[in-house]
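Table 4 source record.
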Amino acid sequence: MIDETFWEPRFIAFLDSREAEHDAAHNREHLRRVVANARRLAVAENADLTVVLPAAWLHDCVSVPKDSLQRPFASTMAATAASSFLTWSGYPPFRIPAIAHAIMAHSFTANIAPLTIEARVVQDADRLDALGAIGLARCLMLNGQLGRPLYDPAEPFPTQRPADDTLSAVDHFYTKLLGLAATMTTAAGKAEAERRTVFLTQFLQQLSEELGVALPQPQVDAR
């Protein structure tokens, strides 16, 4: 077992020392929620917490802007930085490769397959934070930060055009969020993702009613 009272302050101190500028959706509270999700999923899936918890805490230790061309490599850079920190800190060395893999595989953009139950748990834990009420709020906050509107006034929902999440927050539902439940790789993660996705679809339905515009059939990227 991992001694969380010993290691958690060290993880936080390392993150503080990075002084990385996180976007509106990837702040310290995001990390805490991912850690809480990962802990619950690890218990449900009988995953090794000595791998899951460090990976959950450190998965975003390298910050790359959402619209940067380097974004697909952020999780690999984070895995390298986390491995160096854990080695220097005296974390059990035989755990570090598994932690690094879990960090690399958590990213939706990187599209790296999780090969262990611990990596699957961390990936699902991170993706759960993009769903439900918190996921909705994060989506709107981040798109506001990026200067993107809630919807395209010419066509609020992508009915006659391909979804394009550089265009609006609503389009991001169709390029990513509505397809996340299908990408979950643990039973516990999938069940929770499906529950949270219902909330997102209810939001879209309410928005369509208020705008007087029909919803399209979801066309999502279900990698």
